[in-house]
Amino acid sequence: MLIRNQHPDYGTPLEPTDAETLGIEAAEAVERFLSHRPNHKPTPLRSLPALADQLGLGAIHLKDEGYRLGLGSFKALGGAYAVIRLVLEEAQRQLGRTVGMDDLHNPEVAKISASMTFGCATDGNHGRSVAQGAQLVGARSVIFVHGGVSDARVAAITRYGAEMVRVAGTYDDSVAEAARVCAERGWTVVSDTSWPGYEHIPGLVMQGYTAIMREALEKLPQPPTHVFVQSGVGGIAAAAAAYLSIRFGEKRPTFVVVDPARAACIFETARTGRPVKLAHGEPTVMAMLECYEPSPLAWRILSRVADAFMTVEDETAVEVMNRLARPLGHDPVVVAGESGGAGLAGLFTAARDPEMRAMICLDATSRVLLVVTEGATDPDRYRELVGLPPADLASVAIEGK
């Protein structure tokens, strides 16, 4: 399903705080932060001309976040960035002076960070990022996961020294439990979703994601005409849409938000015009996107700058994984996890449907930008769905193409 944005706020300016958090200067601040990370380099931008030709489009480019900071996911940009920013803010408050990245290992700052505990709920990738950020600054991390998070993803988080807490129920239940326990014990909760009175930290998480669009636009031969980005609670979609809106103004590309059909909280919110909490139903294969309640902060942004909202079926997401692993013509191999290719699943769905194509003006001149938000973060699941070991495919993929 695909619908155009009919919200009364559609086309109105972003709120000043959101524009400041996700604008050009904010993205430049993230880039300066990343320059201090020893394993940072821009992730690859892949061109898929054979696939574009098959779908009747002018160009398709994929920003491959499977190579991001050793975590294999775009989430590496959000949680770790927020943790380090929060340590610097607390050090500045306690020391009464300006504190920057170069001061992180100063004994005074290190003592402050060692006294801090960061908690969060996760489906896997966000928790890894928060845990990595805490480890980088010598802080403690406690990560809350629901029953649907695989043992492989839990193990990937514990490698960064995190304490793990299992929570009965869904992702949204783990969010509530993380918030409750952190408040009770005086820990700092680093959530990628917001709630009333809690927007600064989710804003920092989203600010980290602006690096994706900034890097992509530096490498694209021409600006995109269309951008498809998948959504869980809405954070990455809102960050990307806001940055593009500020960067291009009235000439911004058509922005399409893609939800799993089985966990379409942003789509249903757009359809009803207000935040909707969905009942927990049959799990989606796109486990990293299995969220049943949108972030109010993300929705506030998307209601203004997203042009359309759509859902995709699990079968199409798996088809995308297999197509990227076995590409057409001379297109590059791309390793995309179950959720990583959801934006491309949205493009597949729209490009094959004449009514959808017309609704968002997709044609042979369209230049489409997508984000592969994660690689094979659960290798066993990837092998099950694609029939190939991701490590073998990764050796074929040309990083940086």
Automatic annotation (TrEMBL):
Domain Tryptophan synthase beta chain-like PALP: 38-373
EC number of this enzyme: 4.3.1.15
InterPro entries: DiNH2opropionate_NH3_lyase, TrpB-like_PALP, TrpB-like_PALP_sf
Keyword Lyase appears in the UniProt entry: yes
Pfam family, one: PALP
CDD domains: Trp-synth-beta_II (cd00640)
Domain of life, per lineage: Bacteria
Keyword Membrane tagged: no
UniProt GO MF annotations: diaminopropionate ammonia-lyase activity; pyridoxal phosphate binding
Cofactor: pyridoxal 5'-phosphate
UniProt KW keywords: Lyase, Pyridoxal phosphate
NCBIfam families in the record: diampropi_NH3ly, PRK08206.1
Protein name per the record: Diaminopropionate ammonia-lyase
The organism's taxonomic lineage, starting at the top: Bacteria, Pseudomonadati, Pseudomonadota, Alphaproteobacteria, Hyphomicrobiales
